[in-house]
Automatic annotation (TrEMBL):
It comes from the Bacteria. SUPFAM superfamilies: P-loop containing nucleoside triphosphate hydrolases. It holds the Pfam family AAA_18. InterPro entries: P-loop_NTPase. This is AAA family ATPase.
Amino acid sequence: MTQPYAKIIALVGLAGSGKSSAVEYLTEKGFPKIYFGGVIYKAMDEAGIEKTWDNQQQFREEIRRREGKDFVIKRVIKNIHDLINAGQNKIVLDGLYTWSEYKFLKHEFPGQVVVIAIVTPKYLRYQRMAKRTERPMQPHEVDQRDWSEIENLEKGGPIAIADYFIINDGSLEQLHQKIDAATHDAHFCKSPEQC
């Protein structure tokens, strides 16, 4: 028996790029979201570890070393199958980080996964990260986070090989328009207006 077809949009980007705003925009339209970090949070709860940014980052790297690079993606794939089996045919992924996760998704759902990278000039990312109410960061901290995520989590691969690139250097409304255009072009939505 063949598995039902779904269109899966994975949004990727470095910290401060606007990825979370893009995910929020699509979920407000009613599309279900799977948050990769939720898998980590659940495992942290089970291990009795407090959920702080530093703990999460350290735990994510440690559990992938201990359990394998596929620890998160195996659980995400199960969640995707559960949504598809429940009748969902359009799914948003938030938190695809690693090259390994990217390859697992592409293998498990051939022709169904579209990666959209949200790319923002570094100076704007610095400004946004400094203004965050939760976990604000100074430029050197943003750089350290980027390097850590690129070197330890292979985060650069999915961004570099994305199917679509959205340059997020304008207003939130402009970002939404670019998301509508990309999701329409990717056949996720019937038209930019009907997404």
